[in-house]
Amino acid sequence: MIYLSLNTLYAQDCKVLLKTINKSYNGECKKGKAHGNGTARGTDSYKGEFKKGYPEGLGTYTWKNGNVFKGSFKKGKKEGKGTLTYKADSTLVGFWKKDNYIGVYEKPYKKNYKTQNITGYSINQVQQNIQSIRVFVKEDGKNVKDPNIKVVLLGGNYQTETPARDYFEIKNVAYPIKAKVYYKQEYVEFEIFNSGLWEVKLEITNIKGLGN
Q: What are the beta bridge partners of residue 74?
């Protein structure tokens, strides 16, 4: 009984550093801060794992408006896999990074293969509301105008191909998509999982004896 009373008192003195849930706390502590499993309440509430005063690890966060996130946290922010359930009965499932939803997949793309003369290779999302992939080519240090690109589809779908002055674009992409993209004898193979406008940039350095 004495041990339980002391433990409860210590839990009450424990600090929660996230302002929205720092009015009361019941749980494990370390060095005066919530650390381990516990429950914290304020304008919102949280039940789960803590580290150094912040929600960190697995837990459930409930907002005052009734929305609930169940999943992984890091320093008080959604980080990793989780499920966000809205009071209006809609659900968002997937992965978060620094409190921002990044999509159904943890890694939005995967580079599977590139030929040896491709010395630079990047894939980046630049917008979310356009469903296209643009391929840029730089050969021997110079940007290629009107690049002659061939796309071999391995999974997913798209509707149209549109050559442009500075890039080659495939439009109305149904993600996830898996493709090989050829420029001359060189190619890359990749998968893109999340929807949006993506830029694939290739740098080709023609090395003597490799395809020459």
A: 77
Q: Are residues 62 and 141 in the same domain?
A: no
Q: 49 near 56, Cβ under 8 Å?
A: yes
Give the closest residue to 200 by CA, choosing from 128, 106, 109: 109
- pLDDT for 55 equals 98
Higher pLDDT, 7 or 157: 157
In this structure, which amino acid lies at residue 201?
K
CA distance 115 to 184: 11
Residues counted in the chain: 212
- The count of other CB atoms within 10 Å of the CB of residue 55 is 29
Find the helix or strand (DSSP H, E) in which 12 lies. helix 2-12
Pair of tokens at residue 158: 């798209």
Domain end position, chosen among 72, 103, 134: 103
Provide the residue range defining the domain that includes 28. Answer: 2-103
